[in-house]
Amino acid sequence: MRLIFLGAPGVGKGTQADLIAAKFGRPKISTGDILREAVRNKTPMGVQAKACMDQGQLVPDAVVIGIVKDKLAEPACTKGFLLDGFPRTVPQAEELAAILKARGLQLDRVINVSVPREDVVRRLTGRRSCPKCQAVFHVEFAPPTRNGFCDRCGGELMQRSDDKRETVENRLAVYEAQTAPLIAYYRQRGLLSDIDGAGKVEQVQQRVVELLSVNGLA
Ligand code: AMP
User: Fold this and answer.
1) 76-122 pLDDT tens trace
2) 2, 14, 50, 202: least surrounded by Cβ within 10 Å?
3) How many domains would you assign to the chain?
4) Helices 201-214/13-24 angle, 10° precision
């Protein structure tokens, strides 16, 4: 199972990738999560990436390609993997193809999740996460039991700095300009499947599982 979850920020692709990763016991590689951890730990990569991330811009291709190359070389990825938030540019997609080809591997499917733009803005600006355990909530759609605090570990919930309204607009513009071309890129290669990301998490999950099953992957 070698999958990519593609889609604009806020469509729920990370949530869906988490659920599929847990259900099928395959590792999820989220470049956004890895970069945020590097920022928290103030590593040289984190320091370099922070400025781009805070503005909603992409970090340089070479940085994320390096991350993914290292992750894919880990033994945990031999039985497959789910990529979330990578690739985000055509050069990243080409580099990924080269990395896999060098190992005699191929992608199985690219799952393109989409929801209407106004829903994306609502989902992102209302998102809150726990800096201690990374659990994610939503002020409207998945509120914690105690307002402002994590249900799982009691940590104080925060808004990701790039989920603020202006940054969200930037991230969506960056997605349209640099990432949306990957839809045609993977469609031309016969790898793309579209998933409607509207509705409840469980409903979308059902659609993803059906799609995997139709493609002989589940
Ligand atoms: P995400 O959590 O996937 O929304 O990513 C958060 C931020 O991390 C993005 O807005 C980018 O600044 C950076 N980022 C994550 N993945 C990539 C990638 N594949 N290429 C470039 N920048 C990335």
Assistant:
1) 998 899 999 999 999 999 999 999 999 999 999 999 999 999 999 99
2) 202
3) 1
4) 60
In a domain, 190, yes or no: yes
Please give the residue range of the domain that contains residue 8.
2-26+79-115+167-214
- Burial (CB < 10 A; 0-12, 13-18, 19+), residue 166, is exposed
Cα separation of 99 and 186, whole Å?
16
- 3-class secondary-structure state, position 214: helix
Tell me the CA–centroid distance for residue 59 and ligand 1, in Å.
Answer: 7
Whether 184 is covered by a domain: the verdict is yes
Q: Is the CB of 32 under 6 A from ligand 1?
A: yes
Q: How much of the chain is in helix, strand and coil states, percent to nearest 5?
A: 50, 15, 35
